[in-house]
Amino acid sequence: MKDLVAIAEKIAAKLIERRQTIAIAESSTGGLISASLLAVPGASAYFLGSAVVYTRDARRILMDIPDDAMKGIRSASEPYAKLLASQIRRRFSTDWGLSETGATGPTSNRYGDAAGHSCMAVAGPDLAAMTLETGSADRQANMHVFAATALNLLLQNLSR
Questions:
Q1: Rounded to whole angstroms, how far apart are CA atoms 94 and 149?
Q2: For helices 78-92 and 56-63, what crossing angle results, to 10°?
Q3: Which of 9, 41, 106, 114 might form a disulfide with 137, Cβ 3.0–4.6 angstroms?
Q4: What stretches of the chain show up as alpha helix (H) in DSSP?
Q5: Nearest to 76, CA basis, from 24, 140, 131, 123
Q6: Could you tell me which of 44, 46, 40, 39 has the C-alpha nearest to residue 18?
Q7: pTM, whole model, 2 decimals?
Q8: What is the pLDDT of residues 113-137, one digit of tens each?
Q9: Would you tell me how many other CB atoms lie within 10 Å of the CB of residue 46?
Q10: How many other CB atoms are there within 10 angstroms of residue 115's CB atom?
Q11: Using an 8 Å Cβ cutoff, are 3 and 13 in contact?
């Protein structure tokens, strides 16, 4: 967790310096991204909220994304990650939105993605997304790598 908090500290410094805010929508990391950001003292200056969007019901209830908005988009994909990041940003009226969705393992998810597959996105002035394939079935290790990668994606976009 210390390495995640080290990344979060860099993010916090940039957000506080700019007086900007963020909200998080995460799935297979189960709150690890949010916990990393909240572990930094002073998080209330930039962290407005988060949602663990692990199921279709969570997507509908927490994110207000109805099934018809998902036509042509499948979970654990870059388009879905972009939708989540944009929607969490909009729902919390933040400067930034960060999302993650994937398959931690030890088996594939119901959409056919192998364990170790994750898509993440940042919504801010621009919209950026990426896909990560760890090739590992280690659930906890994947959660950690997914969270670190998402935080680093955010840091890269904050540094532009």
A1: 21
A2: 30
A3: 106
A4: 2-18, 32-38, 56-63, 78-92, 139-158
A5: 131
A6: 46
A7: 0.96
A8: 999 999 999 999 999 999 999 999 9
A9: 23
A10: 21
A11: no
